[in-house]
Amino acid sequence: MTADTTPGLVCAHHHLYSTLARGMPAPPLTPTTFLGVLEQIWWRLDTALDLEMLDWSAKLGALEALEAGCTAIVDHHESPNAIDGSLSVIAEACAEVGVRVVASYGVTDRHGPEGARRGLEENDRFLSDGGRGMVGVHAAFTCSDDTLHAAADLAVRHGVGVHVHVAEGPDDGGAVDRLRALATDDWLLIHGVHLPDDHGLRGTIVHNPRSNMNNAVGYARPARFANPVALGTDGIGADMLAEFQLAFVAARADDVTFSPDTAWSWLEQGWSLVPEARSDRVRWTYEPMEPWHLAYTPTVRAIDVDIDGEPALRDGVATRVDPAEIRARAGEQAARLHARL
Ligand SMILES: [Zn+2]
After folding, report:
1. What span, in angstroms and rounded, lies between the C-alpha atoms of 243 and 69?
2. What's the distance, CA 313 to chain centroid?
3. Is the pLDDT of residue 305 over 90?
4. How far apart are CA 69 and CA 239, in angstroms?
5. What is the CA(171)–ligand 1 centre distance, in A?
6. Is the pTM of this model over 0.90?
7. What pLDDT sits at residue 236?
8. CA-based nearest residue to 237, from 86, 87, 12, 18
9. What pLDDT does 130 receive?
10. CA distance 24 to 270
11. Which of 157, 167, 171, 231 is paired with 287 by a 20 to 30 Å CA distance?
12. CA 40 – ligand 1 centroid, Å
């Protein structure tokens, strides 16, 4: 590999359904807490989604990932009024663009036990059909113990981990005790901002610095955990070089001795989650692609991307899809979605 190339980057936590949220109408009440952000923004948006919106949202999200040199997305999905088949819509949208995806449906009891059952069924259906995925759980604080156990059991049955938000805000403080006996090394524990240092949960912690700052939930200080740490965007695009830079500067704001090498190791941890991405190739506008350079070079862009040995991006332009068409169709679906809000 030359100094201006890297493997494909991995986004270890994304919400492709949120791509069309940009520019959405302001909520009736301005949220002042983390729970308020969920209630006023994300839980209104996910309820309004149908499968056609999801299709173009996922295609645009996958396109933007590709354009940023991210060749693998670990997605966490919720669309309570369009559950059945939703994971296949996401998987097919990503396949069309050429980007790898590990899909999961975020099970929750927010819509009653029937909603939780249908979420579990969608994970089961997708994985049984041979889909690349995990079992999704929204978060312990929106699930009954029965649902948490059912999700963990389903994951064991399919030989995959559970992908769950943990202690993102103070409202999820009870997660540790409720998940400790269930979590295994293949779980993805998203955020962990309010976890104690010695929480004892097994799994990879996924740090989402931009999202955490945006939601004012506090600094997760991921370097304090014994767990492996990976980086995600929590649905705000899939520019993983930018997320690495934010992870670095957020850590640096807390500790002036923090090294870019540590933040880079979090980015590299994505390859343990989606090992195939390591064989993808990205050529960049900058060299050398090394942590101490990249921490201080905010404008690096992907030029060429090969996924699975085949071209997916050339001179910054996607080769397998028409980017202008995706942007136009996604724009139409965004207008339809915003009208429902
Ligand atoms: Zn998330």
Report:
1. 12
2. 22
3. yes
4. 8
5. 15
6. yes
7. 98
8. 18
9. 98
10. 31
11. 231
12. 16
